[in-house]
Amino acid sequence: MSVIVEMEVVASDFELGRILDIVPGVRIEVETMVPAGERAVPLFWVYDGDRSSFESSVRDHPAVDAVTEIDEFEDRTLYAIDWDVEFDHFFGAIVENDGHILAATGHSDAWQFELRFPGHDCLSEFRESLNGAGISFEVIRVYNPTRPDAGPWFGLTPTQREALVLAVESGYYDIPRTCTTVELAEKLGISDQAVTERLRRAIVNLVDNSLLVTSDDSE
Fold first, then answer.
1. 45 to each of 24, 30, 73, 101, how far by Cα in Å?
2. CATH number for the 149-208 domain, one of 2.30.30, 1.10.260, 3.30.70, 1.10.10?
3. Locate the Bacterioopsin transcriptional activator GAF and HTH associated domain: which residues (predicted)?
4. pLDDT band with cut points at 50, 70 and 90 for residue 149
């Protein structure tokens, strides 16, 4: 049975946290991680930041190959960053233990992550890997999304639930369709590409934690 952990990690203890080096008052939210061969390219939103200075500091980091602006709104900008993940022990430990990032938000001193692992054994191995790498972290909550006390969202993150509910209420899944991803994007304040990816992940989480739950899992 899968298990979800909510945790906080000291920003200076993992490579991506050091690369982004968030100044006070700025918030970063990871939208998704896009596989690119043996690399993983994160798409992330930067809120209330000085765009030029942020891009310059990230681009100058020796581990960064490229930083690309994808979309821009009044209070936030969507970026893709291509960086060498080989020396990032935190993300390496996630991959090695079959973990998946459900949500990630960064501030100046720490990042909050919501991670899913196949089971408690994988989660334990992940925590041991972080301890071995000297990464400071605090576990906030560990829960199984299929249990009654896990809440009514069946593993959906708040942003995934918001997007899926809006899509259904706006007629995106109606036949014929009465709403487009562009219209959903305008309402959510993100790009239409981000809407498509968020809905995809929401549906996968919903099916995984409802239709694919066996009788043994629910006991």
1. 16, 6, 10, 15
2. 1.10.10
3. 24-148
4. very low
